[in-house]
Amino acid sequence: MVIHDVHVAPVVGQEIESGYIRIEGDRIVAVAAGPAPDVPGAVRIDGSGCLATPGLVNTHHHLYQWASQGLAQDATLFEWLVALYPVWAAMDADVVKGAAGAGLSWLALSGCTTSSDHHYVFPKGRGDLLAAEIEAAHEVGIRFHPARGSMDRGKSSGGLPPDEVIEELDDILAATAEAIDAYHDPSFSSMVRVVVAPCSPFSASGELMTQAAALARAKGVRLHTHVAETLDEDEHCLAQFGLRPVDYMDKLGWLGPDVWFAHAVHLSDSDIGKLAATGTGTAHCPSSNGRLGAGIARVSEMLRRGANVGLGVDGSASSELTSLAGEMRQALLFQRARYGPKALPARRALEIATLGGARNLGRENELGSLEPGKLADIALWRIDGPFTSAVADPVCALVFGPPPPLARLLVGGRSVVEDGELKTVSQDTAGRAGAEASRRLTRLARERGVGVV
Ligand SMILES: [Zn+2]
Q: How many A from CA of 317 to the centre of ligand 1?
């Protein structure tokens, strides 16, 4: 396959105003300036009027939340969680399947080729929720890093969630090990990699965090959790553990190059130093942080000090229809509002959305830039439309504005989106299944006597 006459923003290496990308199998074999060579039998994609970037990498999500959007609209994180835990307790595998299919389709349509998902509510007797979302990802055709989440610290042990949504420590570890054995594929071209992910300091015990880390390291998989999202969490950690969140994670053995944290909004200078020194990554989720009034993460300072930052849309219950491409703009605007116009340039925003995300997932050798040898995960953005073509710099058109139309999305050279339409699943059916999942969850919650507002 050859994409020709295209503007290439490879993220690593020189930007090319007019050039080509040659793909063999699922890999990129050449990225160069000038006219494309004649390759007998190759599929040729006309990239004129388009910007090619690496596929975007989403490093924080809760796909099931597609089914609980628009609730607790004016709540803080803790108020929002307390309102939603009982609703989530009613979910089943059908809800997760419909929600994940819609959420992943939405991501693909916004240029995302790899997504993680942090699923941490597993009500008993509700079917195999992890299998449901892995199946959805397989159908949509993007790479998937499901993080087997967990909560074992309910209200009766000083945690935030009600006891009905927590699991026993031994059950969590057994189910997590089982998920890794069943689904984790460490290969270069892997479509599924499992992550170990107790939910947060205020819903997972120190014992769970420590044992989960030992399990992940024994199995060679990565670790993920929420850290320092709001000031309420700071207070909770200080009161219960005598430490702020990052210091608490340090004590539990949860800093390292195999760990990335969601949010990391409220960091001290010393926290940033620890993240940078240990190679611990973060997933910046600006729309969700804005929606919940959590604050603005110190992204540009983290980047300056060498800490890795990727992007995440976060669950749709706290960011509704946020698109991953839109998060580049949101990140750029937040940083500039806080630190001034030089805080985050457009190309740096694109870099965190691609290579930064790949680093969070431990896949910087395979994903995140357009270079020979890497997987052919490529987004082609149409920037010659009647409105977008008024901006001469295509990367500016992509990052500063609302995302331009997606001409093509390739995952390992396979077309997942063409001219703004999903090719792998019916877009209409996926969207409707997401809406049906929402109605189903509302009905299941009401059957349990839970008000949904
Ligand atoms: Zn989250």
A: 10
Q: Which tokens belong to 155?
A: 């209200």
Is residue 141 within 8 Å of 109, Cβ to Cβ? no
pLDDT of residue 451: 84
Residue showing tokens 């927590």: 166
> Distance from the CA of 286 to the center of ligand 1, in angstroms?
12
Q: What's the one-letter identity of residue 443?
A: R
Percentage, residues of the chain above pLDDT 90: 97
Each residue of 21-38: pLDDT tens digit?
A: 999 999 999 999 999 999
Amino acid at 139: E
Summarised one tens digit per residue, pLDDT across range 231-250 is 999 999 999 999 999 999 99
Phi then psi for 20, rounded to 5 degrees? Answer: -145, 160
Q: Give distance in angstroms: CA of 201 to centre of ligand 1.
A: 13
Residue 295: C-alpha distances to residues 56, 79, 288, 315 (Å): 24, 16, 10, 17
Q: Can you give the pLDDT at residue 389?
A: 85
Distance (Å) from CA 85 to ligand 1 centroid: 13
Distance 290 CA to ligand 1 centre (A): 13
Q: What angle do CA 404, 407, 409 make, to 5 degrees?
A: 105
Gap from CA of 266 to ligand 1 centroid (Å): 15
- pLDDT of 387 reads 83
